[in-house]
Amino acid sequence: MASEIKFSSLNCRGLHSADKRKDVFDYLKVRGSHIYCLQDVHWDSNMIATISTEWGGNCFIAPGTNNSRGVAILFNDNFNVTVTRIHCNSNGNLIAVAFQTCQYEVTLVVLYGPNTDTPAFFNEVQNIIEDFNTPHCIVVGDWNVVLDTDMDSLNYLHTNNPKSRQVVHKLMKNLDLFDVWRVFHPITKRFTWRQKNPLKQSRLDYFLVSSGLLNTVTTATITPGYRSDHFMINSSFRLGQMVTGKGFWKFNNSLLEDEAYQKIVKNVIDETITEYACLPYNIDKLLSIPRNMVDFNINDQLFFETLLMNIRGKTISYSSFKKKSEIKREVYLLNEIDRVHSIYSDNIYLREYCDSLEKELQHLREKKLKGSFIRSRVEWVDEGEKPSKFFLNLEKRNHVSKLICHLTNDDNEQIFDQDGIQEETYNFYKKLYSSNDSHLSDLNQCDGYWNCLNRLFS
């Protein structure tokens, strides 16, 4: 069952005052979001216990001082979540938590970007996300960097923090992150920070979401903030287990170099010939007859299709068995290497044994990585030019792009459950291929149509 989880983020412009803090907390709880990401809260380390009591739910804080910085993640008590890891930087402008909910593992990073051009800060963000290494990632906060100077700023004389902006774009590319607001509103100009005199506006606050979560996003909005010069940004995610089918089977060319597979195919060919050969043949001597001289009790085309079907069945079965065997072998090698290292000594035989295990493990991993190169559909690969993570992320992006997490039907209604998506998809293509387009006419009757086509030969 899918659950919709709403995130809200706000630069609070200081919540050190108890009165303002109580007022803002009441305002946030009324909004009903599940997770609040707050920046510039002005909470020092002595206030953590007080904040936790006042909020009444799980909260994680990277403290700043009583008049600057500080970021926090506040979890509402209206949904189930398990936090597995936490990281705070010493400056109080970044906090990262890894959590699990609805069978999703997500790294959530909340940041308050430096006012100065400090690209090293955003390099730190990338390092933390890579270290957490969860399947999904959300990065949100007041970045103090605009992604597009034309669309995201107004009345700026100069481009602020240009080096940081370059690093943020690089981070988005390396980690496969997308600006949720711009995905939903590609041509809309909206701003999250405003200076009244002289008037200056910019979109400094935004969500960056990994590709694996992008299809689960249902809304991306900018709403008025409260007791702050920043607007609040909101995104909702419809999280639930996506059940995928078996997909299309594709032949793995590496099997052609597998001697065991070659033997299986030859046996399938012999068995199929024996099964469909005409009755007068002596079965014991049938396979000694040249194959192009054997007559079958079905036509040649049907025999060929049957042979391909039989080979395909055996290939799928063998491929599945081989993959399971390789996974089992990899687990054994990892455990055995760990066991040998635990008793490692100057014994030369143990050392050689351990080296052989590590070489075999590396060979298995190289085969897996080579498959990722192919499945990521990279047209040209220069090994060593890009790290393996590039190809693994690209493969994951290609997989995600095949999923349909929600549809909009003809009545402009959103469909999220998989049964409804399948039914709507079926009805769409049924209508598409059963309808006659009266606007199309016979191309042969179009004057001059064929004469305007480019031809290889005259």
TrEMBL record:
Residues the UniProt record annotates as site (Transition state stabilizer): 144
GO cellular component: nucleus
Domain of life: Eukaryota
Span of domain Endonuclease/exonuclease/phosphatase: 9-230
Record InterPro entries: AP_endonuc_1 (IPR004808), Endo/exonu/phosph_ase_sf (IPR036691), Endo/exonuclease/phosphatase (IPR005135)
Cofactor note: Probably binds two magnesium or manganese ions per subunit.
Catalytic activity: Exonucleolytic cleavage in the 3'- to 5'-direction to yield nucleoside 5'-phosphates
EC assignment: 3.1.11.2
Site (Interaction with DNA substrate): 230
Residue positions binding Mg(2+): 11, 142, 144, 229-230
CDD domains listed in its UniProt record: L1-EN (cd09076)
Pfam family, one: Exo_endo_phos
Keywords: Hydrolase, Magnesium, Manganese, Metal-binding
The protein, known as: exodeoxyribonuclease III
Species, as recorded: Holothuria leucospilota
